[in-house]
Amino acid sequence: MSGRSRLVVLVSLLALLATAFGVYAQTTPDENTLVIGQSVDVGSLEPSLVGSRAEANIFGHLYGTLFDITADGTLAPYLANSYSISEDGTEWTFTLNEGLTCHDGEALTAEDVVYTFQRAANPENAFTGNTVGFVFPSVGYVDARAENDLEVTIITDRAQSEPLRLGLLSEVYLHCKDYYESLTLEEAAESPVGSGPYRFVEWVRDDYVAIEAVDPSAPSFDRIVWRVIPEASTRVAELIAGNVDIVANVPPDQVAAVDASGVAAVQAVQGTRRMYVGFQFGEAFADSPGYDAIQNTAVRVALQYAIDVPTICSSLLGTECTRASSMVNPPNDNPNLTPYPYDPAMAEQLLDEAGYPRNADGVRFEITLMGPRGRYLNDANVVQAIGQYLTDIGVQTTVEILDWSSDYLPRVREKNVGPIFFLGTGGSTWSALYDMADLSAPDAGTNYTNWNNSEWFELWDSTAGTTPEEERELINQMLEVFYNDPPWLLLYFQPDFYGVSNRVAWQARRDEQVIVLDASLAE
Amino acid sequence: MMTAYIIRRLLQSVIVIIGVTLLSFLTLHLAGDPTYLYVSERASEQEIIDTRQKLGFDRPLPVQYIDYIGGVLTGDFGTSLRARQPAMELVMERLPATLELTLFAMAISTVIAIPIGILAAINRGTPFDGGIMLFAMFGQSIPSFWLGIMLILSVGLGLRALPISGHVPLLEPLFAGDFQTAFANSGDALRYLIMPGITVGVFSLSRNARLVRSAMLEVLSQEYVTTARSKGLREQVVIVRHALRNALIPIVTMIGLEFGFLLSGVVVAETVFSWPGVGRLVFNAITQRDIPVVQASVVLFSFLFVGLNLLIDIIYAQLDPRIRLR
Question: Under CATH, which number does the domain B2-19+94-325 receive?
């Protein structure tokens, strides 16, 4: 080929590229639109099938609930304005606000609330997820009954802590009977008609969900678009480019880039997820090295001093965090308890006293620490660090990292992790008992350590039907029991990082929810 | 003879598809109990048992598989456990987006690879040839995930020349007969396609360029090319009519297989560029053990692969009359 022909080919290729690239006008949101980037799409828009945070974020705008769990953990009236409790504590009657409607104009009455609860509980619908899988069994749901148009009674099989039950019932998304009765389950999963401040507009799977304000004069943004951006780096790039206003889960190593961009900043909040190392009491690990040692309370207390939690937070999680003093999120925790400090000398002294001195090669005992990869913030590295801290005080620790979904999660659910294992469980801002419900019974599904402290469980059983003051006293006692006979090596409340555009005024919540009803354009 | 061959290949494909579905079914179940992914974090043991029953995972594996195959034979691929929608419908919904990406990447990897491969061959040993081969080596060495992120940072965020992520549908309206929307979307669709398309296609582009170069070098040394030149034909005619035509046979085979390769390689690009295609759907379905969706995708992809291979064989026979299908 001649030089001229080569030149023609080259110029043609460049022309093609130049034409294709052009100058692209980025799709910056207009002043009435808020764009949020989250890592996963909703699986379904069925209100009784909420199974992920991504779904709860969107449903929190589409559907109203009886009461509202506010950002600071207060339980505030929402579609219901008050409630009363039967003498035996099993029947709760809520009074709805007058004039409620669903987005199709249908009046929302007590009958619709009954329908919401009964539809969710109907085994023929085979719903799974939060409402049926957690809320109903937790409150002991039996049935619902309409007293009149505005009063609805939720019937349960037991008395229960008032804030705990109120908060749990506030996780049920209310919808209207006529509309949902007219749909098949498949149709309902795609065409939500809610009762909240925003109505559904469009869902393009794995791409975006768009919602718009029912009353454009009420919320700050007329339209909210939830974009699905699975890759964290891409989410951050979209934020810096100004195409997205809020993104969740900014990786710690990209926080500085966002802050330096001049168009957005990162809000680091102490989340409500409790991160801990569990001590396994179940017989499955009875033959494993280290199992016998950790059955000793003094050993478990000693190990609390071995971990430098603030350094883990600052080095591996990219933020400062305070060490947990209990399994309960502040401010609902016991104020009299102080977090165990990092004091390896104290840890070694206590282990000596407990009968586990260092042997000739410096090892006190061996143990295996299991942990997941790909579930929590920088989880595998945190587990490695904990293993090293334990090894440093003579507890020779073998770290075993497992894939979260295929291996670790099933093992956790089967309580087949140990002898010590790293885990995080979701907590709340609104109830100490909610946080403590992991250990609601020795055989509770979430008592992954198989801890069986009789004093704790007796106190737990006595919380039902108490006054708030009595309940608080019992909670404090229980947390002292937990502190002195720890089934967990207490670590931290997992920090969450939100990237927020400078054009938006919004404060991230601690409970991992992205609720933007109070977001507005920054002044 | 051709018809018999096609029928035989189609029958073979049924066995392949059954085998693939069985393998994927067993793999997903051996990777742990899927029930745990469908219960609340705080579900009790009884709730887990109830959910297992609701999802049908309490039945013996052979029963579950036979049920599934029975459904497939009647056109029922099951319902997604997560989305509660027909599994095949979900897959088909995303197929146009994946086809756009795959076809675009394929276009890049052939339209660019063939001319630069030819140019490299006819300029063998020159700096131009060296540059092309260096590029090809880089193209085959760069991890697509890294390339995608770099494109986003440099072209999307740095130059603001192309959209960082997202998708504008092109084939979907086209398949639906909405030509007006397809035409209106075409400009934006192309812009959204470029970076993910390059990410998916650059490996194949590099490999194809090297393949074209070596095929051309081999053909250019043949005596009939010398004869063509000695007849006084123009060099362009020699290259295009005599050399390229004969060099095309291995290239066509590779390009045919390329489609399958690209189709299976889009997961990374779809994730990095938030592209709502089948790759991401399958990836999520695997992590969530949404078995009906995985199976529906497997069946569809198996059909596509088998169909493509068949098509390549037929084209192959047309290109080279010495090849006969038996």
Answer: 1.10.3720.10
